[in-house]
Write a structure and sequence with these properties.
The protein is mainly alpha-helical and 147 residues long. It has 5 helices and no strands. It starts with a helix and ends in a 5-residue tail after the last helix.
Length: 147
């Protein structure tokens, strides 16, 4: 079960890092398509943030402590941090490119949850897969012919 707990912590850290990146982009996007990108980024970060608490509660339900510090999230996350503010299309590209990383992590956690018959958690992870599939579709459609 320790392997599931560790993977669940990475799921949480990846979600938090993706949320934080999307919200930072939401704050800083600019250009002629500002309103469209600002709204898209807002929808994405709000949806992902909505899952963060539930992910932490699932870890607590496994009788483990959820990571809670920025340094610990950074240590666990597979999502790269930005050191600068890219242009609006690069923002969308970076988020789009982060999604396969998150999807692979969710799949690893899903398989472990199924192994341990933690079906309530695997069902939640399946919902997270669906959510990121939608985020990928929206970003790809916005970046059409640019990805």
């Amino acid at each position: 079960m320790e392997d599931l707990i560790q993977e669940a912590k990475v799921v949480l850290a990846n979600h938090f890092a993706f949320y934080f990146k999307a919200q930072g982009y939401h704050w800083n996007v600019q250009g002629p398509d500002f309103s469209q990108y600002h709204n898209l980024l807002g929808e994405i970060y709000e949806e992902v943030y909505g899952a963060v608490d539930k992910l932490a509660e699932e870890i607590r339900g496994m009788n483990a402590f959820a990571p809670a510090g920025l340094a610990r999230f950074s240590e666990l996350s597979e999502i790269s941090d930005d050191q600068n503010i890219p242009d609006s299309l690069e923002m969308l590209r970076r988020l789009y490119n982060d999604i396969p990383i998150i999807e692979a992590n969710i799949l690893r956690a899903y398989d472990l949850a199924e192994k341990y018959r933690s079906h309530h958690y695997s069902n939640f992870l399946a919902e997270r897969q669906d959510a990121f599939k939608k985020h990928a579709w929206m970003l790809k459609a916005t970046l059409k012919n640019m990805v």
